Structure formats: C-alpha cells, structure tokens
Amino acid sequence: MNKYNHRDIEKKWQEFWEKEELDKALNFDKKPKFYGLIEFPYPSGEGLHVGHIRPDTAMDIICRKRRLQGYNVLYPIGWDAFGLPTENYAIKTGIHPTVVTKKNTDNIRRQLKNLGFSFDWSREINTTDPAYYKWTQWIFLQFLKRGLAYKKKMAINWCPSCKIGLANEEVVDGKCERCGTPVEKRDKEQWLLAITKYADRLDKDLDTVNFLEKIKTQQKNWIGRKEGINITYLIDGTKETITVFTTRPDTNYGATFVVLAPEHELAMKITTEDNKKTVAAYVNNASKKTEEERITEGRKKTGVFTGRFAINHLTGKKMPIWVSDFVLSGYGTGAVVGVPGHDIRDFEFAKEFGLEIIRVVVGKDYDTSPIARPEQVQEEEGRMVNSGILNGLEIHEATRKIMDYMVEKGWGKKVVTYHLRDWIFSRQHYWGEPIPVVFCEKCKNRKYNFIFIHGYDSTCKTPWKAWLKKELEKRGHAFFGPELPNTANPNVEEQANYILKNAKIDEDTIIIGHSLGGAVMMKILEKIKTKIARAVFLDAVLRPEFNHREIPEVIASSDWKFNFKKIKKAANEFVVLADKDFIIIPKDQSEELGKLFEARVIYVKPNHRHFSRAEIEPEVLKLFDDNGRVPVPEKDLPVELPKVEKYQPTDTGESPLAAISDWVNTKCPRCGGPARRETDTMPNWAGSSWYYLAYLMMEKNPKSEIRNPKQIKNSKFKIRNDEKNLKYLDLRFAGDQFKYWLPVDWYNGGMEHTTLHLLYSRFWHKFLFDLGLVPTSEPYAKRTSHGVILAEGGVKMSKSRPETIINPDDLVKRFGADALRVYEMFIGPFDQTVAWSMDGLAGAQRFLEKIWNFYGQVKLMDCDDGKKPCANAPAGLPQLLHKTVKKVGEDIEAMKFNTAISAMMIFMNFIGKHEAVPRAAAERFLIILAPFAPHLAEELWQKLCHKQSIFREKWPEYDPALAQDQTIKLVLQINGKVRDLVEAAADIGEEEAKELALASEKIKKWLVGKEVKKIIFVKGKLINIVI
RNA sequence: GGCUCAGUGGCGGAACUGGUAUACGCACAACACUUAAAAUGUUGCGUCCUAUGGGCAUGUGGGUUCGACUCCCACCUGAGCCACCA
Predict the structure, then answer these.
(1) What is the separation of C-alpha A543 from the centre of its chain, rounded to a whole number of angstroms?
(2) Helix (H/G/I), strand (E/B), else coil: A448
(3) What are the residue boundaries of the Leucyl-tRNA synthetase editing domain, all occurrences included (predicted)?
(4) A799 in a labelled binding site
(5) In this predicted model, what pLDDT tens digit does every residue of A732-776 receive, in sequence order?
(6) Which residue among A298, A511, A569, A677 is buried most deeply as judged by most CB within 10 Å?
C-alpha cells in the first residue's frame, strides 16, 4: 500500500460526503433527533485560527457519533456578521460591509470545509441577510407590542474622538476600545428591552436545564436575585418620606445616617436653603464625571449633607440625610441607610464625615469595642447587641424577626431586587439591524376622541374612569363615556346601537371596551365603515365564562358570535390591557384576544381591581401617549439598510444612518404624513438571540425533505410561498419544525458568552414561548463550554500580535485535517486553557500513519463475530477491544476527548504488534476512530472492500463482561504501602486473598517479629495488612 | 473586594466513588536498520541512597483515615468573570 498521504484522500471524501448528502438533517424524520449546536462564527478578516476550531471539532465528533448511533442529526452553521470590526474596516477602506462580509465568509467557509466538519450546509444562515433580519425586526416589534421594548433617556458612553456612542463592552478601563480616549457620559434616548421582567424566570428555570454548574452560578450571580426590605422613613420637618432598600434590616438599630444617590429625585427637593448651593454643585459635578475620573478617584468617599434628618423607627434617632455618588441610582431605591458598624462602605463614609458608629452584632471573638479600622467591620455571622427586641438573636433569626415586625408596623415592604438591568438595545452604528420604528410629529400631536364603553352593571363614573377622563382631557383629547341602557340586564346589540347612534366615530377615534364593553365594542366594529385609530380591550370579556361564578345576565346579553375578520379590519391597532390580579375574568381571554387581533398585550401592576380605583398607572397613559413612535407594519419588513457610500459617524452622536436623508425621511404608516425613521440599529446580540431557530426555518432543497403530508394541504404552508424571501419559513408558521427539533440537545460555547448571549437568547426564547411560537420554555437542554487555546509559550492569540496567530490552513496542508483534528482534541482537557505545540501535532500525525501502515499490511481473520476470540487471535484482544469501545464512547459523552484518543493509541499499540487480527476487531476500531479522523477512517473502510460509507455503519456495542478484567494484579500492602503484587481472579474472596498475601515472600519478610493488628480487604483491588 | 476554577516529571497531561501516582503523547538518550541522514522499530526515562532492596515526592503547612492527587482547615501562586449592588 502507498504511504499515508492526507492530500490524496481528504478532498476526495469531502466531495463524496457532500454528494451523498450524508450530513443533511431531515425535518420530521422517524429516527430520534439530535440537535448539536456551536456558536456561529463572526466572519473576521483574519479568518479562523486553531483556537476557533476546537469547539467545532468537539461537536463534530459528538454529531458523527450520534449519526453512527442512528440519530437524525442537525449540526448547522452560519454567520453572525453584523458588528464593529467589519464597519471599521469599511470606514477605513471604503469597501462596503456587504462586500467585506461576503469575502470573509467565503474564506472561513473554505477553511471549515477543509477540516471535514459535518455541517448541514444547506441551512447556512447569515444575520446580515435582509431575509434573516426581517425576523429579527419582527421579534423586536413583538417586544414593542407587549410593552417590553421602550425608549428612555439615559447616560451613554461617548467617545469624543470617534464621535460615537459606545456600548459597555466597547469601553475598556474607562477608555474607548478603539482609540483609547477617555469616555464621557452623555444623555441620549435609548431603546431598552425589559429583560428584568423575566429575571425571576431566568433565575428559577436554571434548575430545569443541564448546564455546567459554573455556568449556572455565573448566570445566577449576574441576575443577582436578592430578597430584602424597602423601609420608609419620615423626613423630620417635612411631609416627605424616604424609602431605602436593605438586605440587612437586622442591623437597623445601628443605622445612623441615610445616603441618596445624586440622581435621586429627593436630593434637591428636600435640601434646606442653607445647603442648596453645595448640594446642587455636588449633584451637577457627579453627572459630569467621566468613567476615568471615577476610577482614578478610587473608593474615596465624597458627599454633602442636605440639612435634613430621617427618623429611625426603632431608635427614634435623627439620622442625617446625605448625598453621595457611592450610592447607585439604578439599584434598589437609589437610597441606602447607613449602618457603619457592619458595612464597609458605610464605615468609610462615616469615618470620612465623622458620623456615629454603633456596633449591633458581635462575632465569634465577642469583641464589642468601638471600631477603629475597616477590617474590624465584621459580617456574616454573630449575635445581636444594642438592638432592643433583637438582642441575643443570631443574625439570620434577627433578620426574619425584624422584617416581619417592620411589615406588620407598616414601616416596610418585603421586596426582591435584581442586579440584572434592562438591556440597552440601541447602537449608533451603521452595520446593524435597523430598528423598525418611525417617528411622526403629526401622530405625536394628534388629538383623539375616546369612547369609553363600560361593563355589565356598571357606570362611567367610577374613580378610575374619572381619573382617565381627567388625564386624557388634560392632554387635549376628547372623552365620551355615556351611561349605557339597561346596564343591570344588558343587551350587547342594543348597547352597541346606542353608541353608534350617539357617538361620532371616525379615523381619530379610540374605543375602549371595558369588561362586557369589550363585546359591545366588537359588535360596533363589525358594523362601522370607517377604520378607527385604535381599539382597546380593557379586562374585556370574549366569552361569558368566568372563574368562581356564573353571571346569567351576561350569558344572556349576547349571541357571543363575532366576525373577527371584519373586526380586525375596523381598527388600525389593537391593544389588550389587563389587570394581572383580577380573578373573575380568566386571563386566557385576554391572551386569546391578543392573538386574534395581533394586539399589544399589556398587564398592569397588581391591585387595580378591574380598573376601579383611582390610581395613577403610567403604563396605561403610555398607551395614549407614545411620543409619535409608530412601529413599521409587519408587512413592510424588512426595513433594509440603505446602500450608501459613507459609514462615517456623525458629529451629533447619532448613527451614520441619520445623514442619509433619502432613507430617513419616509411616510408615517399610521397617518400617511411625513415621518423620520429611527436611525439607531440593534446590537450584535440581537441576531444571535434566535439564530438556532433560523436554522429550523431554512427552506432549501425541499426535494430531500420528508414532509408531513398533512402540511402540504395546510394553508399555512401556502403563505410561505407568498413571502418575498423564500429562504426562511414564516416564523409564525414554523411551529412544526420547532416542535420536532427543539430544544437544542447540546450547545457548546465559550464562557465569555454566559452572561450576555446565553442569557439574552434564553430571554428571547421565553418571550417567544409566551407568544406560543416555540414549544419549550428553555432553548437549550444542555450547555457545556470549552477552554481557550493559547499560542506557543502561553500568550493569547491576538490580532495586535499577528505572529501569535496560528492559521489552520498551512497545518491542514502539511499535516492534514485529520491530524489537526486529533491533535486539537488530544492537546489537553477540553474545558481547560491549553497552549499550542507544533511537536504535539507531529505526534498526532504519527499516530494516524501508524494506523494507515498497520491496515495496509495486516492479515484479517474472518473467524469470529467479535465477541468470541479466534483460536489463533492475539490473547487479550477481545478484552482490550471492548474496553476501548466502552471508554471511547463514554469519554466522548463526557467531552474527555484527550483520554479517548489515549485509549485508541493503547489499542493501536497493542494490535500493531500483530500480523493478523480478527476482521471484526479491525473494523470496530475504525468505526470508533471515524468521528475523530473521518477521512482516514473512510479511506481505510473502503480499502477493506466496503461499498458504503463508514458513517452508515452502527456504533459498536461492547460486552460489559469482556470490558471488565478477568484477572487483576492484587495489591499487597503493609500499613498502606505497596510491598507486592500478585495475579488473582477479579472476584477473589477475602480468605483466599489473605492466604495469597501471607504466602508472598516479600510480605513474609515484613511480618517477621511483627504482630498483625488488622487486615483490610478491598474487593477487586487490594489487601492491606496493618502491623 | 466578591464569585468560579486550577496548581502532579524537562513539557502537554492521566488516575473510577479515598485503594499500584506519573497512563497516553511530546522532548531526550542508547541500540537496531542505513554508506550516511531522515523515517521507522526496540529499550530506558520523577528524585535520592549504603541499590535483587529501600527512603522521599502530586503548590505550602496541618488534620481525618488502615490508606489522601482525591475529603476537611489555613495559607501561597496563577487564570477567568464581575466589581462602591446596600
């Protein structure tokens, strides 16, 4: 046989696999499914280096093994192609990002194909493809509809040199990542996604998934759920109160002052005249401070006194109220109560300004002396002193007791806070998905006439309705809320006719249907000719079905038949507004209304009692006051990026898109008047938050798809063909694919994505689950992570030091893809950081050569079925084979690829010594080798005269009895030290073992003149004589 | 400062649930083959000693145990993530 030459075989098999569609995942196949996922690459100009392909190789091995085990495997790949490096490159060179992206993806695709990864290339996706980001934008619109995307003025990081807003991750040590200029703060309106609304579920549901423990811990810490109490204090000499958040109310007897964040609304409000000037100066200064100044100042505490005092409920003490920037406005209530005896920051603050320090907890050392140094501030355990009713209690008991006490007294309220913040979703860059919203001045100023339809046995004079009327009229809207006929014994038709007769209904009308009024509203909408501006369902009734009771009058009030198609056409927008805690009308009615009318569904805070009490509810007012922000209608998606010559940032802090007037100026989809497009784009994390779904929506080569015949008839499938872009199924109708493939069975990725991408995509998935679009509440069943590969010498491979980057292209040429794959996996434990070594790579190649040479000259004995040894087969071979099959299989599952390869080397070293081996053993070994070195295994398989691909074979079973050793070397110990080894049967009993041990010459020598105290026998392992 | 992880030959690393520490590979050395080299094969390879045997070795110091790389306590070193989060 020829010498092993990877160049002759690797291309050949790659082409063969592609032709055979060996790696194609079939939707709805009968086999069990396996969805293996790796993080899709960013197509950088440098291409891949050897570190990038470690996780790809690992998952490829797992997926190839799964195929051999009879699974229908999906191993997809795509491009996460929006982002700064491409945009920067475009700015520098003037080449359009689309062109750059194309060039880079072509290059990396070539690299990946050369390595023989078994990706299903027919499902390749690209986040910058308008057909793709259409759906990214569509999901954003759903967030908007549900009130989970909102705009807020906030401080952003601003680079005065690049004249561009920076994301947090672009700020390194208070400086711009690109140019090193210190970053400033600037106020700007930003889009945010309300991930905090999902904080609790993101935390709790971690218990339902199989993620590495360290990944769960990191996410839990990032979410930072904490239970505590909001304590409200009276401010002496005013009518104001101040609320602070604390997790340690047990120390409240030791509270001696209160501190507000500079941004706190009370900071200026309560300050006495004498202190106004200094406080104003401090507050002003704090807002201007740059990140860098804050860091260089270190932790030295600064602050100013407001001249006011809060009264400590427990001690009656007057606690001075200060303002300081060590208190964060975004966490808790933006105010803290200072307990300098037991909090290091409070202690430093008290020292700085000479405030009183009281100790209320004693630790193990019983030291109660006043504190002089910060390290004496102790925490975490101890008993209460100087604390009234808490004295003597252990701190955790004290916490429980005082919480209940304060709540009972009405001083405080138990609350849960999170470290997690809402996700800032705006970027002022060109190369990202445009946010599909337009701004319309006319809609902002538009005045509506509201028609309010009250419910069964009700009136329009309740306090809540009166409040709404007042608020709307204050804004210049008209409000018509008539008393409907026969409210105690209503007839929906009659009430609808009453409204039709008495109210003016035109395109500026907003109808609010409250409770049974929702049904009345639908009857009205069935009949009108003009399209009204908005229809609002307010805790509305869709069916006369209620929790807890029956209401015969309501059942009788209507035929409960509605023409939803007609109704849907009668209003421009639908909104469903529901009281989360109202128990009589089942919540699923609101949900259903939301789906019927593709409405915005918003739940208001608890305790509104079906919108009866006159409480200010900003969520409600927001609905009538959207600042002229009009969502782009779904049918107009995608909002494509304009093709332009320049991507330079502007001077104003706006995205480069703002300068493209052709694109920015558009027509308002609501009123048809002139409007401006939103010029912010989405962050990188947007496209990657749902990409694992996009693979399932790909529609290419349908000829080889096994399709459920029912679906072809299904009208949903026809809609797909009307889509402008045929590449992706309509996300709303891809449910069957989702049901088949989800959840992702195994997702491997980097630890650096744990708190960003991994959390964000879990959030999006839960949101889509709530919309009923995906079948699972978690996207990923299992998550593991890989270690980084460092350059030789242990330094990081980085763009700034090109000599450290090891490109796989040359290595594939010199050593072959198989050698590179084997070495990548053998280099060290998969989850740990390891340094690259060229010598090691040569070792992997030698291993493959050894296999090649052996298979080239070995004589195969066709004598057994692999279980029973041939008469003249090498002794011990079946045992070793079954052991190896067991170990390699188990190690792949545990991602212990390095020891799997080592086991195969041991096997190879063994059979390499023989001239003839049973055919079955030689073939089984090739199959377990195949996932690691697919080209070589395939070639040798063919040389063994097989017509079919080795990947159509079955992963070998092992016989547990054979995988176990028959005889062992029994270890003979004296006092735990090994003195001799003897051959013995694996199941040798204690008595026999004792005899063996005492018969040993070496052991006898040690026992001369000694008394045996004890003998310990461990079955199958050792016998230990204690003397 | 917090959280998480790691520390074993010249090097990458192995060791199940506490049971022969150093598997496998690299590097190195000697030998064989060769005119020679490369390649390949064979053998050796923690360290010390009074050496057919024995002592000491898994970052350091203690502890539990018949027995500890493995469990517990304290410390040292390094890595990653977060960081004035009340």
Answers:
(1) 37
(2) coil
(3) 220-406
(4) yes
(5) 888 999 999 999 999 999 988 998 899 999 999 999 999 889 999
(6) A511
